[in-house]
Structures are given as C-alpha cells and as structure tokens.
Amino acid sequence: MVEAIDLHKDYKIGKVLFPALRGIDIKIANGEFTAIAGPSGSGKTTLLNIIGCLDVPTKGKILIDGTNVNELGSKDKANLRKNKIGFVFQTFNLIPVLTAYENIEIPLILLDVEQGKRKQKIVELLEEVGLGEYIDRRPNEMSGGQQQRVAIARALVKEPSMVLADEPTANLDSTTAKEILALMQELNGKHGTTFIFSTHDQLVMDYSRRTVSLRDGKIVDDKTKPRGH
C-alpha cells in the first residue's frame, strides 16, 4: 500500500535548515491499523502529509500502490488524493454552513457520482457511524464526537484505499475518543480500509495494531501486537 524509502524532509526557517525527517524507511500493507507516534517535533505529521501527497520529500521516495509519487505532476497527485485517500483532522474541518449530509456529499460531487447513488451512500454511512438522525444537523448543532463521526463518514464515503488521521482524538474527551477509535476499528475490519494515524495520544496507540515511534525525524521503534490483542 505505502512504502517510504530513505525519506528526508528539510524545512528552512529563516537561514536555519531544520531536518524534520532523517532517513525514514517503512512499509504499510493494505488493511493495516497503524499509529505513527511521537512527541511534538518528531516528524509524524510531516510523514503523514508526505504519504497524503500534501507535501513533498527533500530526498527519498514515497510509493503508493507501487506508484512513485515523486514522479507525478500536481494534477495526478490531486487525482490520487481524490480517489484513494481520505483525511480526518483533529479540528474536524467541517464546513459550518453545511449539514452533515452536505459535508459528506462534497467528495462524491467532486467525483461526479450521480445524485441518487450519492444519497444512498451517504444515508447508509450516516447510519453506520451512528448518526442517522443527524442528517440535517449543522456542525454547531453537534458535539465534538458527532462532528468527528461526520468527518470519518466524509473520509470513507468515496471508498478510499486508506484514511489518514492527524491527531483525531486531540479535541475529544477520553470517553468520546474511545468511541471514535472503536468505530474506526470496526470500519477498518468491515471495509478493509487502511488507517494511518499521527498521534502522541497513548489511547490511539492502545487501539492501533502497529505503532511506529518517531523521534527527531527517525524511527526508533516499530511494534506490531499479536493477533487477538
């Protein structure tokens, strides 16, 4: 699904060069439920953004389904994001003036999905994330956990190969965070969608089957739990 080879990323802050990633080698298979973990400044969000084709490496390669993303133009990268990758953010990133239904509908409109099919998929997915009766609610009429469920539904509605979740529990209390992670686990099992998180939340690591730990832009640990855990 995803392979990073000798991935480096440098940022220039004024005249100072800051190395965010320093030689990352990692493979993530289809259907994984993986956390990229580490403290602030470890490089985890940078790695997630490069996997999501939102940023480019300074050196090294990133392959998605065998395609070298470095060799793609901006239009092809946009198409890759549109068709294969769903995003979930810590701030939910819902459009305030749109209802739950309309927020989830946006990716399907961009993909030119016919209206009847759009409605069927959205209604089914809202039921699946436990928000069937919230179809016409706007974000300010929902709790943080409900908004994150809408964001998850929006990420999944186009049936992407993988969902990238950047600190998805950061703005949630621990009870709601557990519900959201359990929901993601369930959807991962049901649809086989690959989930990759960037996080410093131990709760996310507890729910993840694999935890790749970063520090100072390098992988310092990579653990996979035995099946059944």
Task: Present the secondary structure layout.
Blueprint: E1 2-13, E2 16-28, E3 33-37, H1 44-51, E4 59-64, E5 67-68, H2 74-84, E6 85-89, H3 100-110, H4 115-128, H5 144-156, E7 162-166, H6 174-191, E8 194-199, H7 202-207, E9 210-215, E10 218-224
Parallel strand pairs: 3-8, 3-9, 6-7, 7-8
Antiparallel strand pairs: 1-2, 1-4, 4-5, 9-10
Helix pairs in contact: 3-4, 3-5, 5-6
- Calculate the terminal CA-CA distance, rounded to whole Å: 23 Å
Characterize the largest beta sheet: strand count, sense, and whether it forms a barrel. Answer: 6 strands, mixed
**Average of per-residue pLDDT values:** 92
CATH class placement: Alpha Beta
Listing every helix as H and every strand as E from the N terminus to the C terminus, the arrangement reads EEEHEEHEHHHEHEHEE
- Considering the protein shown, what is the CATH homologous superfamily? P-loop containing nucleotide triphosphate hydrolases
Q: What is the correct CATH architecture? A: 3-Layer(aba) Sandwich
The proportion of residues forming helix, as a percent range, comes to: 25-40%
